[in-house]
Amino acid sequence: MNTRFADKNFRLSDFYNEVWVVCPSCEKRAIAKANRDARLVRLFCVQCGYNKEVSAAFGKTGALVTAAHGYFDASLWLLARFRNNIVWAYNDKHLAYLKAYIGAGLREHKNRTHYTLLEKLPRFYHEARNREALRKVIERLEQKLN
Ligand SMILES: [Zn+2]
Fold first, then answer.
1. Measured in angstroms, how far is the CA atom of residue 86 from the centroid of ligand 1?
2. pLDDT, position 110
3. What's the CA-to-centroid distance between 21 and ligand 1, angstroms?
4. What is the pLDDT of residues 78-129, one digit of tens each?
5. Domain spans in the chain, listed from the N-terminal domain onward
6. What are the residues whose beta carbon lies below 5 Å from ligand 1 (ion)?
7. Which tens digits make up the pLDDT trace of 34-54?
8. What's the maximum distance between 2 C-alpha atoms anywhere in the chain?
9. Residue 81 contacts by C-beta under 8 Å, 6 or more apart in sequence?
C-alpha cells in the first residue's frame, strides 16, 4: 500500500529554533532554544542543570539566523551514520517529517523553490533503494526521543 506524502514546504529554519543537542556537561539530551523576545538562545539540560545563554540574531521571519545549537559547542542529539553519510534531525518534529517523507511511496512536490528542507536533502534520502535502510536508521533515532 502506498502512502502519500504531501510536501508541506518546510524549511530547515522552521525547525531550528529548538534543537536537541548532546549536553556539553553530562552528555545526555539537552535543548538549545531560541527566545525571540529576549533575543537570546539558551542551552538547558534538565538532567544536570547546565544552563547557558547567549545573545542571538533573528531574521525577519522570527527564525534564528543560524540553527540554535550553532551558538554553542554542542553536537546534535539526533544523529546517526548511514553508510558514508549522516542522517540527522534538529528535533522530534523534524525527525517525524523526515520519516513521513522516507516512508511514503508517493511523493508530491508542489512548487519547487530550491529552498525547502526536502529539496535540500542530500540525494541518498530520495533514492527508493535506500528507503528500508533509512527507515531503520530513523527508527533507531526515534529510540533517542524519550
Ligand atoms: Zn547535562
1. 24
2. 67
3. 10
4. 999 999 999 999 999 999 999 999 988 777 766 777 788 998 999 999 998 9
5. 4-13+79-142, 16-71
6. 23, 25-26, 45, 47-48, 50
7. 999 999 999 999 999 999 999
8. 49
9. 87
Between the CA of 119 and the centroid of ligand 1 the distance, in Å, is: 34
pTM of the model: 0.91
Q: What is the pLDDT of residue 104?
A: 84
**Contact, 116 vs 7, CB < 8 A?**
yes
Name the pairing type of β-strands 29-35 and 40-44: antiparallel
Please, are residues 4 and 106 in contact by the beta-carbon 8 Å criterion?
A: yes
Q: Higher pLDDT residue, 19 or 116?
A: 19
Side by side, the strands of the sheet bearing 29-35 are: 18-22, 29-35, 40-44, 51-55
In single-letter form, the type of residue at position 90 comes to Y
User: Could you tell me the fold of the domain covering 16-71?
Assistant: N-terminal domain of TfIIb (2.20.25)
8, three cell numbers: 508541506
Q: How far is CA 131 from CA 84, 92, 104, in A?
A: 16, 20, 9
